[in-house]
Amino acid sequence: MVRFKVVLVEPKYQGNIGSVARVMKNFGFNDLILVNPPRIEGEARAMSMHALDVLENATVVENLRDVDRYCDFKVSTSAITAGDSNALRSPVFPEELAKALDSDGNIGIVFGREDYGLYNEEVLECDMQVTIPANQEYPTLNLAQSVAVILYELSRSEHRKRAGKRKFRELDGERKRVLYEMVDGMVDEVFDDDWTRELNKKSMKQVFGRAFVSGREAQTLIGLFRNAGEKLSGKTSTRKKSEE
Prior knowledge:
The protein is α/β, with parallel strands linked by helices. It contains 9 helices and 6 strands. The protein folds into 2 domains: 4-165, 3-Layer(aba) Sandwich (Alpha/beta knot), CATH 3.40.1280; 173-243.
């Protein structure tokens, strides 16, 4: 996450700055840049909660151009959008942002003022724009809420990449065969008529197919169904003996 920096342009309220710091900490982001902010005092510290380190380590600059010393790439955020005829206000959505920013360097996500957002000339200074789809009757989100949505999408993308790198032992043909045998055995113990048995066996195979069961998961399920089948078989034998 070190490549991403949150940039707040002339925020008006201390509480919002503290809330943004807290949201950043929630999603694992630490670099905050403040453009011409108010004095950081008690309210900002109180709202930051356990993200006081993010607040205290924030970089303060005088204007948006000074951000270029810390960021190779700037992304503006805005609720105001336009079509292809106005490239200035033609944004991507948050879920598309991570793919668009799959590059090297430090990236600043620039958020505007609580009342006016970013001016056109400030948007023009940035390399691209992102917007959060919201109700057209009231599309403007609170500053901290906007930061949370954007950082959530970036964080989710990062977590997906990490999950994709984890090694899972794939389900091989032999384990699949044994798993289905265990399922079939248990189904045979539970149901009496052939039609219900076949329906349940087919349904279970479809569930396992859609779930992309790993080798380890299959081994666990094999043990579960084996034990369940043995217990059901034992109860069936006991019941038959008592009936005799």
